[in-house]
Amino acid sequence: MKNNNTICEHNYAMKIEKKLTLKNFCTNHTGKMKGMISLSTACLCNKYCMVRKKLPGSICEHCYACAMAKRYTALNKKLVDNYNLLTNEDIAIEDMPILNVLICRLESFGDIANIQQVKNYFTLCNANPKVQFTLWTKNPTIIKSAMEFYGIDKPENLIIIQSSIMVNKVSKVHHDFIDKVFTVYDKEHAEKVDINCGARSCATCQRCYKKTNDIEYVNELLK
């Protein structure tokens, strides 16, 4: 963890500008995320991610984001910069970028780490009311704490998906702001459920980006 802390803190020693720009967004996705725009933070900096990565049977044991962050240093630098900015600074709505897209994913590599990050994501959504945002998280209690602490409501253009921590086991939902649950199954257990995700194009499917459908549980095959 010593090396991870060094990586995560190297930019915070410098003055952080309280402005989020389009440079913070990742647009060079591949695979099912090809063509998508997302804003993410560094999983290597997130204490919750690091603890769950060591949890037997968790999806975090198979974390592709950690592997990619360690392999691609330029990507990780951007994710670390985002982490330091979003979790430490209160970004005003006038400092949020205006996105010329229909849909945007929040956290395709990391997860929310504290209530400040939640507040900033809510502000980003409010600054772009015509964009449909979707946030994946295994930390819904942080969202609840942020809403109570700051007295803020979930934006209407935000879908919150609770990611199941364990493979083959759907996490229980305890908060009414959760719209969908995303669970990963191995081949043995996949035969017992409807695998309605997996290897599709997110840009064309958009199953996770629409509130109008009746799909509450999204299931993916473990890669």
Question: What are the salient characteristics of this protein?
Answer:
13% strand; 223 residues; alpha/beta
- Shape, per Cα inertia axes: globular
- Structurally, the number of domains stands at 1
Quaternary status of these chains? single chain
- The side-by-side strand order for the widest beta sheet comes to 1-2-3-4-5-6
Question: What structural class do the secondary elements suggest?
Answer: alpha/beta
Note the beta-strand portion. Answer: 5-15%
Residue windows where pLDDT falls under 50 for at least 5 positions: 10-14
Distance between the termini: 27 Å
Radius of gyration: 17 Å
Mean of pLDDT:
89
What is the element string, with H for helices and E for strands? HEHHHEHEHEEHHE
Largest sheet, in brief, is:
6 strands, parallel
Helix residue percentage: 25-40%
Number of strands: 6
Provide structural commentary.
The structure is a single chain. The protein has 223 residues and is of the alpha/beta class. It has one domain. The chain contains 8 helices and 6 strands. The chain has helices spanning 2-9, 47-52, 64-71, 73-88, 115-127, 140-150, 187-190, 202-205; strands at residues 38-39, 103-106, 132-137, 158-163, 180-185, 217-221. A 6-stranded parallel beta sheet has the order 1-2-3-4-5-6. Helix 3 (64-71) crosses helix 4 (73-88), helix 4 (73-88) crosses helix 5 (115-127) and helix 5 (115-127) crosses helix 6 (140-150). The radius of gyration is 17 Å and the shape is globular. Mean pLDDT is 89; it is low at 10-14.
